[in-house]
Amino acid sequence: MTNHDTGHEAGNELATQAPGALPDKFADPGHPEHHDRLGDNDPKANKKAERQVVVLFAVSVLATLGFLVAYFTLPPGETPESMLRSNLALGLGLALSLLGIGLAAVHWAKALMNDHEKSEERHVQRSSDENRAGAVAALKDGAEDSAIGRRGVLQGAMISALALFPLAIVVPIVGNVGGDWNVSKFRHTMWKKGTKLATDPTGRPIKAADVTIGSVFHVIPEGLEEAEHPLDEKAKAVVLLVRLDPADLNEAEDRKGWSYDGIVAYSKICTHVGCPVALYEQQTHHLLCPCHQSTFDVANGARVVFGPAKRPLPQLPITIDDEGYLIAQSDFNEPVGPSYWERLK
Fold first, then answer.
1. What share of the chain is helix, strand, coil (3-state, %, to 5)?
2. b/e per residue, 73-85, with b = 16+ CB within 10 A?
3. How many whole angstroms separate alpha carbon 244 and alpha carbon 215?
4. Distance, CA of 321 to CA of 207 (rounded, Å)
5. Strands (DSSP E) found in 216-331
6. DSSP secondary structure code for residue 198 in this structure
7. R_g over Cα of the chain
8. 303, HSE (Cβ side, Cα atoms, 13 Å)
9. To pair with 333 at 20 to 30 A between CA atoms, which of 39, 254, 323, 339?
10. What is the pLDDT of residues 29-62, one digit of tens each?
């Protein structure tokens, strides 16, 4: 009796049962009818599929080599353009290397290996010794079915791709061995006593008289462009400057001299994961990080009022010079940004 006939009889049986009654079991419909692939009957098509798999492995090999070339010839540099160029080349190389291996494995399985559906009954978790021996035999049959032993070019392409790809991971790791792991540099920024606060990105010094209540300035240290690594220094030293009505400003006793006539300056780097905090709400005096919605109260020492951040934004003590320009009294009161392994708080 065919599966179709069995299913038909089961259907008749269900039709004769009382409404709402459940059958004791359903008939096994069996596997769907198998259809041969083109390569199963045509040796030329089979060989073509093999060549396609080889080409995909070759793409992976070339992409891995391209990644290594890009790693050594296109360093990130100090400019956004050089960083974009380096990251794009490395990313494309790594993506194509993995994609080539993945597509080759899938195409190999679908076009060259046996595609007959198989099933087995469920059994207890611990198989019998006989079943275990059968599993080992099945693995051997699978290896034989893949015909890797008879496909020398395909075997070489696969081994080359799999052998070269780890270099895309190992080389950058080895290249960073002996690099700069001095995390103490995060404790300090360019800010020091007397450094003028300047607008970002123009670098124009800011006078206290130019800062009106409710206004916000994105600030960098004056002379930032003259630093040895200006982008690195800017990443640590960026500041958000806000002026509040002095009556709304609640300062701790040890910070009462850190602001000037309601003007306060806080690190722009979120203490959660380092995103730029830049969305200021004048009525509530709340400062929002757009990445994960950490919210800081500027009127109360930039303490956290919502979100995943655990620490207030570090404050930059400020005052004015003889000409009325805003200047720093010192560096930030604590290291900026997220926690790191040598940070005490």
1. 45, 15, 45
2. ebeeeeeeeeeeb
3. 8
4. 9
5. 216-221, 239-243, 263-267, 279-281, 286-288, 295-297, 303-306, 318-320, 326-328
6. E
7. 34
8. 8
9. 323
10. 888 888 888 888 888 988 999 999 999 999 999 9
pLDDT digits (tens, 9 = 90+) for 308-334: 999 999 999 999 999 999 999 999 988
15 pLDDT higher than 70:
no
User: Would you tell me how many other CB atoms lie within 10 Å of the CB of residue 323?
Assistant: 9
CA–CA gap between residue 54 and residue 157 (Å, rounded):
6
23: Cβ contacts below 8 Å, ≥ 6 apart: 10, 13, 14, 17
As a whole number of angstroms, the distance between CA 279 and CA 290 comes to 7
Interatomic CA distance for residues 119 and 142, integer angstroms: 15
Q: In a 3-state reduction of DSSP, which class is residue 171?
A: helix
- For β-strands 216-221 and 239-243, DSSP reports them as antiparallel
Length of the chain equals 345
Structure tokens that stand for 87 in this block: 């990251």
Q: Which residues contact 66 (CB under 8 A, 6 or more apart)?
A: 89, 92, 93, 96
Reading the block at residue 159, the tokens are 């081994």
Hey, is 271 helix, strand or coil?
Answer: coil
**158/56 Cα distance (integer angstroms):** 9
* Other CB atoms within 10 A of residue 196 CB: 20
